[in-house]
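worker-03 picked up job from queue 'complexes'. Input manifest follows; two sequence lines, order preserved.
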Amino acid sequence: MDDARIAKRGLSPRLWLAGGWLLLALLAAIFAPLVAPQDPLAQDLMLERLPPFWLDGAEPGYWLGTDSLGRDLLSRLIFGGRIAFIVAFAAAIAACLVGSTLGLIAGYFGGWADRTISRIVDIWMAFPPVLFAILLVAVLGTGLSSVILAIAIIDWTRFCRVIRAEAMGQSRMDYVENARIAGYGRVGIMLREVLPNVVPSIVALLSLEMGIAVIVEAILSFVNLSISTDDPTWGGIIAEGRLSIHQAWWVLVFPLITLILTVLSFSQFGEALKARFDPVLR
Amino acid sequence: MLLQRFLIRLMTMLITLFGVAVVVFVVIRVAPGDPIAMMLPPGATDDDIARLRALYGLDKTIVQQFFIWLSGVVRGDFGTSISLRQDVLGLVFNRLPATLELAIVALVMAVLLGGTMAILGARERGTAVEAGIDIASGAALSIPDFLWGLVLILLFGVLVPIFDISGRVSPQLDLPFVTQFYFFESLLRLRFDLTWDLLKHMLMPAVALALPLAAIISQLLKQSLKEVLDLDYVVLARVKGFSETQVILREALKNAALPTLTLVGVQFTFLIGGTVIVERLFSYEGLGNMAIDAVINRDLPLIQGIVLVFALLFVLINLAVDMMYALLNPKLRHG
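worker-03 finished. Artifact:
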């Protein structure tokens, strides 16, 4: 019996764990000036490469230790979360709007609109995405808006491909035909009948894309092409950690754990949401 | 039928490549910042700048520049790298083998690992083993290659330092190679000491690239296998007294592999795309690492050349997979 109920019960803890971590990280980022124990930019060469709190030589107040310039790692991670979440939300929403719109048009209208859009997607898919992102940021100039724009320019195809296929399937269904016989216009049918049925996929993709955007931002700041080097970013901290890996492993370990938890949470959250929305599974 | 399909695919492939060339060219030409100004010493006069601009063809209109560049590309002339002052095609061909070796080793690892997990999961379906495999492949899939690379650096470069975490080969070694395919050539020359050194450098970046793909193969192939295992001919094989492993390997795998094959083709291009950052992470001297340097140095001809070569590789892989699919799929073969 009830596979669906078992599936749903199985999903709940995932949803709570993933959502819990994201909420915690988001709140810490929003209230960073209140939560962070130290100034994330304050350098103190007397405090360089302090280990995390459970090891010998740790200083109280520097819970996760310090980097090679004596900056507090925990505070840098908390402030780095601000950039990560801004990029995640802005870039994913921008990519979603562009990609879903084009996917919906291509899938529902078909014909030359579909051929044109699909050809552009093919061209986009022939670019190595990371190289494309690095190239775009180099061209647009470093900075928050460039990073967001670059990710949106590259990743809209993820939405476009999936939504196109779904819209194509939906437009062959009886209810769409009925709506047409009832005299609704094509754009009206697309927005009122087809769109609501592809929303679950859009929501799941959106959550997944936020995780991807966090990674791309980390990669860009890892190669020093994200925002200005003064502001702490997760990728920037990782780049420092990679350099001082034999002297201070914690500078790499903690941002890595943070990134993995965030990416896993976004993807799990997306899947759980999709299962909730999916009428078949529900 | 097959030929027609091939020709249509070839045409779309050329259109895609032309599109890529246009996009790259436009993106780079709208870039602020003058690459010529960066090449010259601070005391250069306007005349010097103008002369150098003319030398690189930068004084013509953007459309003229595009077609001059494109006609060169078609003839195999990708221009001269601004930062390295060498022929772009030569630079690219010098680095491409390193990237291809890495990608192929990663692909083989992904197929072996993913295939083993799929077969094991299908044989032990409905047990804790299958559940474990599902969790492992779920995690491997959700974490991207960049993060796997960092995890591996920490585990096997620092915690248990058994592998090298940077470079392609130990610098003090004497290399007898005539090609840039060091790894494959070391195998052919039976120089297994060099193979081992290369492998020690290559293993971690390859695993980082392989894990997400292995997870996808494991999930999809397991699903296909489970579907096939309920079919009559498989049941018949079981009745004949074959063990479950024999049934999977001899009967089911053949028919379950086709959907996976198509997916592996597309995913292989993603894997090659991943080499860009993974090579950077491990200071591996491949094409991707050079590409990042080229972007940072604003070396326009080199970036164009590298992106085009990547794009060519991607469409060729897709073409090959499409043709392989058509050849192997009986419905298409006789359709």
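worker-03 released lock.
Residues 1-8 of chain A have pLDDT under 50 and may be disordered.
The CA atoms of residues 58 and 282 of chain A lie 51 Å apart.
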